[in-house]
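Quick one: structure tokens for this chain, please?
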Amino acid sequence: MTTAPREAETRIGPIGALLCRVMFLAICLPGPALLFVVVSQGRILAAADYWGLLVGGLLATIVGGGFGVWGLRLVTRSRRDARQLAATGVAATAEILTVSNYLGEEDPGLKLRLRISGTGFATFEAETIRADDPALAPGAVLAAVVDPGNVSSRSYSRPASAGETALTAEKPRHAAHQASTPRRPH
């Protein structure tokens, strides 16, 4: 089974992770709170109000719960990626092969095709989306970190900022590259 390299989730520190978890927990709470109010105050509410609040509470619980669980999983994955790369990452280089404009989603940027190489894993290619930066040109070389031991799940997600690209490559392995100042090959 062949899959594409996967970018590591953007690194979140312990305070950021705590704040994100509190926020996603807060997203989950309004629906159950509304259901509690409906059930506890149901005798004094009119029938139309009761059923409207009940349906609204159920809908808020389902939607809020879905977003809350998604957010909690995202934060957990980010922290796991950061710990794994810190523990088993190997220094590598990511040479930019091609650069093209990217107009998808909210922020336009550059789509980079990279060749990631280093010791302890086979050279592989990956793609990432970065914010516009004139230093990101074909032939430029970026620092990279690759986890050569992880070949399990392979998905690909967009990094958060132009200053930091985290690539997790899991066909060859789990990789993360930091988009620091590019260097030109000699």
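The CA atoms of residues 89 and 147 lie 4 Å apart.
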